[in-house]
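Example noted here:
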Amino acid sequence: MASASSLGGVVASESSLASAIGAGVLGSGGGAVDAAVAVGLSLAVVVPHLGGVGGDFFMLYRSPEGRVYFVNGSGFSPARLSRDEVLGRGLGSIPREGPLAATVPGLVGGLYEAWRRFGSLEWASLVAPARRLAARGFPLPRGTWRSANARRECLERDPGSREALKDILIGEPGGAVRMPGLAALLEGVEEDPWYFYRGEPAEALEEYLASIGGVMTREDLRSYRPLTAEPLEGEYRGWRLYEMPPNTQGATTLHLLYMLEEEGVKGEPFRRDRVLQLERMARVAYAVRDRYIGDPQYMSLTPEELASRDVFKRLAAELSNPNKPGGVEKGDTTFFAIADGEGGVVAGIQSLYYPWGSCVTEPRFQVTLNNRALGFTLEEGLPRSLRPRARPLHTLSAVVMEGEGRVVALGASGGLLRPQQHALFVTNIIDYSMGVYEAINAPRAVWDPGRDAIICEEGFECPEGGVRVERIGVANAVEVRGAVKHGYTDKRGEGLPAPAP
Protein backbone atom coordinates (compact mmCIF):
# COMPACT_ATOMS: atom_id res chain seq x y z
CA MET A 1 0.00 0.00 0.00
CA ALA A 2 1.58 3.28 -1.17
CA SER A 3 0.81 5.45 1.83
CA ALA A 4 2.85 7.29 4.47
CA SER A 5 1.94 9.09 7.68
CA SER A 6 3.75 11.57 9.90
CA LEU A 7 3.20 14.35 12.41
CA GLY A 8 5.88 16.36 10.61
CA GLY A 9 4.21 16.39 7.19
CA VAL A 10 4.10 14.30 4.04
CA VAL A 11 4.59 14.63 0.27
CA ALA A 12 2.82 12.56 -2.40
CA SER A 13 4.13 12.90 -5.95
CA GLU A 14 4.72 10.90 -9.10
CA SER A 15 8.45 10.58 -8.35
CA SER A 16 9.98 9.02 -5.24
CA LEU A 17 12.98 11.34 -5.69
CA ALA A 18 10.79 14.46 -5.76
CA SER A 19 8.74 13.24 -2.77
CA ALA A 20 11.93 12.63 -0.75
CA ILE A 21 13.27 16.07 -1.65
CA GLY A 22 10.02 17.71 -0.54
CA ALA A 23 9.98 15.73 2.71
CA GLY A 24 13.53 16.92 3.34
CA VAL A 25 12.40 20.53 3.00
CA LEU A 26 9.59 19.90 5.50
CA GLY A 27 12.05 18.23 7.87
CA SER A 28 14.36 21.24 7.72
CA GLY A 29 11.61 23.58 8.88
CA GLY A 30 9.99 24.54 5.60
CA GLY A 31 6.27 24.82 5.05
CA ALA A 32 4.11 23.20 2.38
CA VAL A 33 4.79 25.97 -0.15
CA ASP A 34 8.57 25.77 0.37
CA ALA A 35 8.34 22.05 -0.30
CA ALA A 36 6.16 22.71 -3.35
CA VAL A 37 8.93 24.77 -4.99
CA ALA A 38 11.47 21.98 -4.47
CA VAL A 39 9.04 19.27 -5.58
CA GLY A 40 7.77 21.16 -8.64
CA LEU A 41 11.28 21.91 -9.94
CA SER A 42 12.47 18.35 -9.20
CA LEU A 43 9.53 16.94 -11.16
CA ALA A 44 10.46 19.30 -14.01
CA VAL A 45 13.83 17.52 -14.13
CA VAL A 46 12.90 13.85 -13.66
CA VAL A 47 9.56 13.79 -15.55
CA PRO A 48 10.09 16.61 -18.08
CA HIS A 49 7.52 15.11 -20.46
CA LEU A 50 4.79 15.71 -17.87
CA GLY A 51 5.68 18.97 -16.19
CA GLY A 52 8.93 20.55 -17.38
CA VAL A 53 10.06 24.18 -17.14
CA GLY A 54 8.51 24.81 -20.56
CA GLY A 55 5.05 24.21 -19.10
CA ASP A 56 2.66 25.70 -16.54
CA PHE A 57 1.91 25.38 -12.82
CA PHE A 58 -1.19 25.95 -10.67
CA MET A 59 -1.54 25.75 -6.90
CA LEU A 60 -4.21 25.73 -4.22
CA TYR A 61 -2.76 26.48 -0.80
CA ARG A 62 -4.75 26.02 2.41
CA SER A 63 -3.00 27.80 5.25
CA PRO A 64 -2.89 26.31 8.75
CA GLU A 65 -5.55 28.89 9.69
CA GLY A 66 -7.91 27.47 7.04
CA ARG A 67 -7.72 30.19 4.36
CA VAL A 68 -7.40 28.88 0.78
CA TYR A 69 -5.39 30.74 -1.88
CA PHE A 70 -4.87 30.21 -5.62
CA VAL A 71 -1.72 30.85 -7.69
CA ASN A 72 -2.03 30.81 -11.48
CA GLY A 73 1.28 30.04 -13.18
CA SER A 74 -0.11 29.64 -16.70
CA GLY A 75 1.39 31.45 -19.65
CA PHE A 76 -0.22 33.60 -22.31
CA SER A 77 -0.05 33.46 -26.09
CA PRO A 78 2.81 35.34 -27.77
CA ALA A 79 1.96 38.81 -29.05
CA ARG A 80 2.34 37.64 -32.66
CA LEU A 81 0.22 34.50 -32.26
CA SER A 82 -3.17 35.50 -33.63
CA ARG A 83 -6.00 33.99 -35.62
CA ASP A 84 -4.77 35.82 -38.71
CA GLU A 85 -1.24 34.48 -38.21
CA VAL A 86 -2.50 30.88 -38.08
CA LEU A 87 -4.85 31.23 -41.03
CA GLY A 88 -2.24 33.19 -42.99
CA ARG A 89 0.05 30.16 -42.85
CA GLY A 90 -2.57 28.05 -44.55
CA LEU A 91 -3.57 26.24 -41.36
CA GLY A 92 -7.21 25.50 -40.61
CA SER A 93 -6.63 25.05 -36.89
CA ILE A 94 -4.01 25.58 -34.21
CA PRO A 95 -1.30 22.95 -34.76
CA ARG A 96 -0.83 20.23 -32.15
CA GLU A 97 2.95 20.34 -32.39
CA GLY A 98 5.64 22.71 -33.59
CA PRO A 99 6.53 26.30 -32.68
CA LEU A 100 3.00 27.75 -33.06
CA ALA A 101 1.57 25.32 -30.50
CA ALA A 102 3.34 26.88 -27.50
CA THR A 103 2.33 29.59 -25.06
CA VAL A 104 4.80 31.40 -22.79
CA PRO A 105 5.92 28.94 -20.07
CA GLY A 106 4.56 29.86 -16.64
CA LEU A 107 5.92 27.16 -14.31
CA VAL A 108 9.02 28.90 -12.97
CA GLY A 109 7.16 32.19 -12.49
CA GLY A 110 4.24 30.46 -10.80
CA LEU A 111 6.49 28.65 -8.33
CA TYR A 112 8.29 31.89 -7.57
CA GLU A 113 5.02 33.73 -6.98
CA ALA A 114 3.88 30.96 -4.60
CA TRP A 115 7.16 31.23 -2.67
CA ARG A 116 7.12 35.04 -2.67
CA ARG A 117 3.70 35.08 -1.05
CA PHE A 118 3.86 32.07 1.26
CA GLY A 119 7.42 30.71 1.47
CA SER A 120 9.75 30.98 4.45
CA LEU A 121 13.06 29.31 3.53
CA GLU A 122 15.70 30.81 1.25
CA TRP A 123 14.71 30.59 -2.42
CA ALA A 124 18.09 29.29 -3.61
CA SER A 125 17.96 26.40 -1.13
CA LEU A 126 14.69 25.23 -2.70
CA VAL A 127 15.99 25.37 -6.28
CA ALA A 128 19.31 23.68 -5.51
CA PRO A 129 18.03 20.08 -5.19
CA ALA A 130 16.55 20.14 -8.70
CA ARG A 131 19.70 21.75 -10.09
CA ARG A 132 21.80 19.00 -8.52
CA LEU A 133 19.54 16.30 -9.97
CA ALA A 134 19.93 17.77 -13.45
CA ALA A 135 23.71 18.21 -13.10
CA ARG A 136 24.62 14.90 -11.45
CA GLY A 137 22.01 12.78 -13.16
CA PHE A 138 19.12 10.56 -12.10
CA PRO A 139 17.70 7.15 -13.04
CA LEU A 140 15.51 7.44 -16.13
CA PRO A 141 11.90 6.70 -15.05
CA ARG A 142 10.17 4.04 -17.09
CA GLY A 143 7.27 6.40 -17.81
CA THR A 144 9.60 9.06 -19.24
CA TRP A 145 11.36 6.47 -21.42
CA ARG A 146 8.05 5.00 -22.60
CA SER A 147 6.65 8.44 -23.41
CA ALA A 148 9.74 9.48 -25.38
CA ASN A 149 9.47 6.32 -27.48
CA ALA A 150 5.75 6.86 -28.04
CA ARG A 151 6.41 10.37 -29.36
CA ARG A 152 9.79 9.62 -30.94
CA GLU A 153 8.70 10.55 -34.46
CA CYS A 154 7.36 13.90 -33.26
CA LEU A 155 10.47 14.67 -31.20
CA GLU A 156 12.90 13.66 -33.92
CA ARG A 157 11.30 16.08 -36.37
CA ASP A 158 12.63 18.91 -34.19
CA PRO A 159 16.41 19.49 -34.38
CA GLY A 160 16.49 20.86 -30.83
CA SER A 161 14.71 17.84 -29.36
CA ARG A 162 16.99 15.45 -31.25
CA GLU A 163 20.00 17.15 -29.66
CA ALA A 164 18.73 18.02 -26.19
CA LEU A 165 16.90 14.76 -25.47
CA LYS A 166 19.26 12.28 -27.10
CA ASP A 167 20.22 10.65 -23.79
CA ILE A 168 16.54 9.98 -23.10
CA LEU A 169 15.77 8.88 -26.66
CA ILE A 170 18.61 6.34 -26.69
CA GLY A 171 18.48 5.51 -22.97
CA GLU A 172 17.02 2.59 -21.07
CA PRO A 173 14.73 2.62 -18.02
CA GLY A 174 16.79 2.94 -14.89
CA GLY A 175 19.87 4.18 -16.73
CA ALA A 176 21.58 7.39 -15.65
CA VAL A 177 20.49 10.58 -17.43
CA ARG A 178 22.01 14.05 -17.04
CA MET A 179 20.45 17.36 -18.10
CA PRO A 180 23.40 19.82 -18.09
CA GLY A 181 21.56 22.53 -20.01
CA LEU A 182 18.65 22.43 -17.60
CA ALA A 183 21.13 22.47 -14.71
CA ALA A 184 22.63 25.70 -16.11
CA LEU A 185 19.15 27.23 -16.35
CA LEU A 186 18.34 26.29 -12.74
CA GLU A 187 21.70 27.64 -11.57
CA GLY A 188 20.66 31.01 -12.97
CA VAL A 189 17.21 30.70 -11.37
CA GLU A 190 18.84 30.06 -7.99
CA GLU A 191 20.45 33.50 -8.18
CA ASP A 192 17.60 35.32 -9.94
CA PRO A 193 14.04 33.89 -10.05
CA TRP A 194 13.40 35.85 -13.26
CA TYR A 195 16.52 34.58 -15.05
CA PHE A 196 14.44 32.26 -17.24
CA TYR A 197 12.34 35.18 -18.46
CA ARG A 198 14.90 37.98 -18.62
CA GLY A 199 18.27 36.30 -19.05
CA GLU A 200 20.05 34.08 -21.55
CA PRO A 201 17.32 31.40 -21.69
CA ALA A 202 14.84 33.96 -23.06
CA GLU A 203 17.31 35.01 -25.75
CA ALA A 204 18.04 31.38 -26.62
CA LEU A 205 14.33 30.56 -26.90
CA GLU A 206 13.67 33.53 -29.19
CA GLU A 207 16.60 32.66 -31.45
CA TYR A 208 15.77 28.99 -31.72
CA LEU A 209 12.06 29.49 -32.28
CA ALA A 210 12.72 32.10 -34.97
CA SER A 211 14.94 29.58 -36.76
CA ILE A 212 12.07 27.08 -37.06
CA GLY A 213 9.20 29.47 -37.79
CA GLY A 214 8.08 30.45 -34.30
CA VAL A 215 6.73 33.80 -33.12
CA MET A 216 7.56 33.85 -29.38
CA THR A 217 10.04 36.59 -28.45
CA ARG A 218 12.12 37.55 -25.44
CA GLU A 219 9.68 40.44 -24.94
CA ASP A 220 6.85 37.92 -24.54
CA LEU A 221 8.90 36.18 -21.87
CA ARG A 222 9.96 39.44 -20.20
CA SER A 223 6.31 40.57 -20.04
CA TYR A 224 5.08 37.42 -18.34
CA ARG A 225 3.65 37.65 -14.82
CA PRO A 226 1.86 34.95 -12.80
CA LEU A 227 -1.55 35.73 -11.33
CA THR A 228 -3.30 35.16 -8.03
CA ALA A 229 -7.04 34.90 -7.48
CA GLU A 230 -9.65 33.62 -5.09
CA PRO A 231 -10.42 29.90 -5.46
CA LEU A 232 -13.86 28.69 -6.46
CA GLU A 233 -15.94 27.51 -3.51
CA GLY A 234 -18.82 25.06 -3.46
CA GLU A 235 -20.48 22.45 -1.27
CA TYR A 236 -21.33 18.81 -1.73
CA ARG A 237 -23.36 16.95 0.89
CA GLY A 238 -22.04 19.07 3.73
CA TRP A 239 -18.40 19.13 2.60
CA ARG A 240 -16.72 22.39 1.60
CA LEU A 241 -14.97 22.13 -1.79
CA TYR A 242 -12.34 24.40 -3.33
CA GLU A 243 -11.44 24.25 -7.01
CA MET A 244 -9.26 26.34 -9.31
CA PRO A 245 -10.91 29.31 -11.05
CA PRO A 246 -10.66 30.33 -14.74
CA ASN A 247 -8.71 30.12 -16.92
CA THR A 248 -8.85 26.52 -15.58
CA GLN A 249 -11.76 24.10 -16.01
CA GLY A 250 -12.12 23.77 -12.22
CA ALA A 251 -15.70 25.05 -12.34
CA THR A 252 -16.65 21.98 -14.37
CA THR A 253 -15.86 19.76 -11.36
CA LEU A 254 -18.29 21.78 -9.24
CA HIS A 255 -20.94 21.68 -11.98
CA LEU A 256 -20.76 17.89 -12.17
CA LEU A 257 -21.03 17.57 -8.41
CA TYR A 258 -24.00 19.94 -8.25
CA MET A 259 -25.89 17.75 -10.73
CA LEU A 260 -24.87 14.58 -8.91
CA GLU A 261 -26.01 15.95 -5.57
CA GLU A 262 -29.36 17.06 -6.95
CA GLU A 263 -30.09 13.77 -8.68
CA GLY A 264 -28.27 11.42 -6.33
CA VAL A 265 -25.39 9.17 -7.37
CA LYS A 266 -26.76 6.12 -9.20
CA GLY A 267 -25.68 2.51 -8.85
CA GLU A 268 -22.91 0.61 -7.17
CA PRO A 269 -19.45 2.20 -7.36
CA PHE A 270 -18.18 0.19 -10.35
CA ARG A 271 -21.38 -0.53 -12.29
CA ARG A 272 -22.37 0.89 -15.63
CA ASP A 273 -25.26 2.94 -14.24
CA ARG A 274 -22.78 5.21 -12.49
CA VAL A 275 -20.72 6.07 -15.58
CA LEU A 276 -23.81 6.43 -17.80
CA GLN A 277 -25.09 9.04 -15.35
CA LEU A 278 -21.68 10.75 -15.34
CA GLU A 279 -21.60 10.80 -19.15
CA ARG A 280 -25.00 12.45 -19.38
CA MET A 281 -24.01 15.15 -16.92
CA ALA A 282 -20.51 15.64 -18.39
CA ARG A 283 -22.00 16.45 -21.81
CA VAL A 284 -23.85 19.36 -20.22
CA ALA A 285 -21.01 20.54 -17.98
CA TYR A 286 -18.42 20.44 -20.77
CA ALA A 287 -20.71 22.33 -23.14
CA VAL A 288 -21.04 25.09 -20.51
CA ARG A 289 -17.27 25.09 -20.08
CA ASP A 290 -16.54 25.40 -23.81
CA ARG A 291 -18.99 28.28 -24.14
CA TYR A 292 -18.30 30.35 -21.04
CA ILE A 293 -14.81 29.60 -19.63
CA GLY A 294 -11.46 30.90 -20.80
CA ASP A 295 -9.31 33.92 -20.09
CA PRO A 296 -11.16 35.78 -17.28
CA GLN A 297 -10.65 39.15 -18.96
CA TYR A 298 -12.86 38.00 -21.86
CA MET A 299 -15.52 36.16 -19.84
CA SER A 300 -19.06 37.47 -19.44
CA LEU A 301 -19.34 35.75 -16.05
CA THR A 302 -17.36 36.27 -12.88
CA PRO A 303 -15.70 33.26 -11.25
CA GLU A 304 -18.18 33.58 -8.38
CA GLU A 305 -21.09 33.36 -10.82
CA LEU A 306 -19.55 30.27 -12.42
CA ALA A 307 -19.41 28.60 -9.01
CA SER A 308 -23.11 29.35 -8.36
CA ARG A 309 -25.58 26.47 -8.61
CA ASP A 310 -28.34 28.75 -9.83
CA VAL A 311 -26.20 30.35 -12.54
CA PHE A 312 -25.05 26.94 -13.75
CA LYS A 313 -28.66 25.74 -13.96
CA ARG A 314 -29.52 28.76 -16.10
CA LEU A 315 -26.53 28.27 -18.41
CA ALA A 316 -27.28 24.58 -18.83
CA ALA A 317 -30.92 25.30 -19.64
CA GLU A 318 -29.89 27.79 -22.34
CA LEU A 319 -27.67 25.32 -24.23
CA SER A 320 -29.01 24.53 -27.69
CA ASN A 321 -27.00 21.32 -28.19
CA PRO A 322 -25.45 20.00 -24.99
CA ASN A 323 -24.77 16.57 -26.52
CA LYS A 324 -22.20 17.82 -29.03
CA PRO A 325 -18.78 16.54 -27.92
CA GLY A 326 -15.93 19.02 -27.98
CA GLY A 327 -12.27 19.38 -27.23
CA VAL A 328 -9.11 17.59 -28.31
CA GLU A 329 -7.29 14.49 -27.13
CA LYS A 330 -6.45 14.11 -23.49
CA GLY A 331 -3.12 15.44 -22.34
CA ASP A 332 -0.76 14.39 -19.60
CA THR A 333 0.24 16.05 -16.37
CA THR A 334 1.80 15.49 -12.97
CA PHE A 335 -0.03 16.34 -9.75
CA PHE A 336 1.46 16.46 -6.27
CA ALA A 337 0.07 17.11 -2.80
CA ILE A 338 1.83 18.24 0.38
CA ALA A 339 0.81 18.62 4.02
CA ASP A 340 3.23 20.27 6.43
CA GLY A 341 3.63 19.82 10.16
CA GLU A 342 1.49 22.88 10.95
CA GLY A 343 -1.44 21.72 8.84
CA GLY A 344 -0.73 23.77 5.72
CA VAL A 345 -1.75 21.93 2.55
CA VAL A 346 -0.74 22.34 -1.11
CA ALA A 347 -2.41 20.90 -4.19
CA GLY A 348 0.05 21.53 -7.04
CA ILE A 349 -0.25 20.56 -10.68
CA GLN A 350 2.06 21.15 -13.67
CA SER A 351 2.01 20.16 -17.31
CA LEU A 352 3.15 20.65 -20.90
CA TYR A 353 -0.34 19.42 -21.96
CA TYR A 354 0.49 16.52 -24.33
CA PRO A 355 3.46 14.41 -23.23
CA TRP A 356 6.50 16.38 -24.48
CA GLY A 357 4.14 19.23 -25.35
CA SER A 358 4.88 20.77 -28.74
CA CYS A 359 7.88 18.44 -29.34
CA VAL A 360 9.98 21.61 -29.66
CA THR A 361 13.05 21.85 -27.43
CA GLU A 362 15.49 24.74 -27.15
CA PRO A 363 18.74 22.76 -27.17
CA ARG A 364 21.12 24.93 -25.11
CA PHE A 365 18.97 24.94 -21.93
CA GLN A 366 16.96 21.79 -22.76
CA VAL A 367 13.58 23.52 -22.47
CA THR A 368 10.81 21.49 -24.10
CA LEU A 369 7.88 23.79 -24.77
CA ASN A 370 4.22 23.12 -24.04
CA ASN A 371 1.44 22.94 -26.62
CA ARG A 372 -1.11 24.85 -24.54
CA ALA A 373 -2.22 26.97 -27.50
CA LEU A 374 -4.54 24.03 -28.19
CA GLY A 375 -6.68 25.43 -25.38
CA PHE A 376 -7.69 28.23 -27.76
CA THR A 377 -10.19 28.05 -30.59
CA LEU A 378 -10.13 29.93 -33.90
CA GLU A 379 -13.86 30.53 -33.47
CA GLU A 380 -14.28 34.20 -32.62
CA GLY A 381 -16.18 35.81 -29.76
CA LEU A 382 -15.57 33.21 -27.03
CA PRO A 383 -13.53 33.54 -23.82
CA ARG A 384 -11.20 30.87 -25.23
CA SER A 385 -10.80 32.46 -28.68
CA LEU A 386 -7.19 32.88 -29.79
CA ARG A 387 -5.94 36.39 -29.11
CA PRO A 388 -2.44 37.80 -28.59
CA ARG A 389 -1.34 37.77 -24.93
CA ALA A 390 -4.42 35.81 -23.80
CA ARG A 391 -4.43 32.78 -21.49
CA PRO A 392 -5.99 29.60 -22.93
CA LEU A 393 -8.75 27.50 -21.45
CA HIS A 394 -6.65 25.24 -19.25
CA THR A 395 -7.34 21.62 -18.40
CA LEU A 396 -5.33 21.75 -15.15
CA SER A 397 -7.20 21.90 -11.84
CA ALA A 398 -7.18 20.32 -8.37
CA VAL A 399 -9.44 19.90 -5.35
CA VAL A 400 -9.16 20.75 -1.66
CA MET A 401 -12.07 19.40 0.39
CA GLU A 402 -12.99 19.85 4.04
CA GLY A 403 -15.46 17.84 6.07
CA GLU A 404 -15.90 15.46 9.00
CA GLY A 405 -12.85 16.95 10.69
CA ARG A 406 -10.61 16.19 7.71
CA VAL A 407 -8.82 18.17 5.01
CA VAL A 408 -8.03 16.37 1.73
CA ALA A 409 -6.06 17.66 -1.27
CA LEU A 410 -6.27 15.52 -4.40
CA GLY A 411 -5.83 15.64 -8.15
CA ALA A 412 -4.81 13.61 -11.18
CA SER A 413 -3.45 13.70 -14.69
CA GLY A 414 -5.93 13.26 -17.50
CA GLY A 415 -6.51 16.50 -19.46
CA LEU A 416 -10.16 16.96 -20.40
CA LEU A 417 -11.07 13.95 -18.28
CA ARG A 418 -9.93 15.59 -15.03
CA PRO A 419 -13.29 17.06 -13.83
CA GLN A 420 -14.91 13.63 -14.16
CA GLN A 421 -12.07 12.00 -12.26
CA HIS A 422 -12.40 14.59 -9.50
CA ALA A 423 -16.13 13.88 -9.35
CA LEU A 424 -15.37 10.16 -9.03
CA PHE A 425 -12.88 10.75 -6.21
CA VAL A 426 -15.18 13.07 -4.26
CA THR A 427 -18.19 10.78 -4.57
CA ASN A 428 -16.04 7.73 -3.76
CA ILE A 429 -15.13 9.41 -0.46
CA ILE A 430 -18.48 10.97 0.43
CA ASP A 431 -21.14 8.76 -1.19
CA TYR A 432 -19.37 5.41 -1.08
CA SER A 433 -17.48 5.95 2.21
CA MET A 434 -14.10 4.98 0.76
CA GLY A 435 -10.86 5.97 2.39
CA VAL A 436 -8.78 8.44 0.39
CA TYR A 437 -6.26 5.80 -0.68
CA GLU A 438 -9.05 3.50 -1.81
CA ALA A 439 -10.85 6.38 -3.56
CA ILE A 440 -7.93 7.32 -5.82
CA ASN A 441 -6.91 3.72 -6.52
CA ALA A 442 -10.39 2.39 -7.31
CA PRO A 443 -11.28 1.45 -10.93
CA ARG A 444 -12.39 4.42 -13.08
CA ALA A 445 -14.70 5.01 -16.01
CA VAL A 446 -15.45 8.35 -17.69
CA TRP A 447 -16.83 9.84 -20.89
CA ASP A 448 -14.04 10.81 -23.28
CA PRO A 449 -15.22 13.82 -25.32
CA GLY A 450 -12.32 13.46 -27.76
CA ARG A 451 -13.68 10.18 -29.12
CA ASP A 452 -17.27 10.57 -27.83
CA ALA A 453 -17.15 7.25 -26.02
CA ILE A 454 -17.10 5.93 -22.48
CA ILE A 455 -13.71 4.52 -21.51
CA CYS A 456 -13.35 2.00 -18.68
CA GLU A 457 -10.51 0.54 -16.68
CA GLU A 458 -10.43 -3.12 -15.70
CA GLY A 459 -12.74 -3.65 -12.73
CA PHE A 460 -15.38 -1.13 -13.85
CA GLU A 461 -18.38 -2.55 -15.71
CA CYS A 462 -18.29 -1.04 -19.19
CA PRO A 463 -21.59 -0.23 -20.94
CA GLU A 464 -22.31 -1.35 -24.50
CA GLY A 465 -20.07 0.59 -26.87
CA GLY A 466 -17.56 1.41 -24.15
CA VAL A 467 -13.82 1.11 -24.70
CA ARG A 468 -11.43 -0.70 -22.35
CA VAL A 469 -8.25 1.24 -21.55
CA GLU A 470 -5.21 0.41 -19.44
CA ARG A 471 -5.48 3.45 -17.19
CA ILE A 472 -7.22 6.81 -16.79
CA GLY A 473 -4.85 9.32 -15.21
CA VAL A 474 -2.51 9.07 -12.22
CA ALA A 475 -3.72 10.54 -8.91
CA ASN A 476 -2.08 11.54 -5.63
CA ALA A 477 -3.51 12.90 -2.39
CA VAL A 478 -2.80 14.03 1.15
CA GLU A 479 -5.14 14.00 4.12
CA VAL A 480 -4.93 15.88 7.41
CA ARG A 481 -6.66 14.24 10.38
CA GLY A 482 -5.86 16.26 13.48
CA ALA A 483 -2.12 16.21 14.08
CA VAL A 484 -1.46 13.32 11.68
CA LYS A 485 -0.79 13.89 7.98
CA HIS A 486 -1.27 11.07 5.48
CA GLY A 487 0.03 10.84 1.92
CA TYR A 488 -1.26 8.48 -0.79
CA THR A 489 -0.02 7.67 -4.30
CA ASP A 490 -1.71 5.90 -7.19
CA LYS A 491 -0.77 2.36 -8.21
CA ARG A 492 -1.07 3.55 -11.83
CA GLY A 493 2.05 5.71 -11.48
CA GLU A 494 5.66 5.31 -10.35
CA GLY A 495 5.56 7.64 -7.35
CA LEU A 496 5.73 7.06 -3.63
CA PRO A 497 4.71 9.23 -0.67
CA ALA A 498 7.46 10.42 1.66
CA PRO A 499 6.98 11.41 5.32
CA ALA A 500 8.93 14.20 7.00
CA PRO A 501 10.68 13.35 10.26
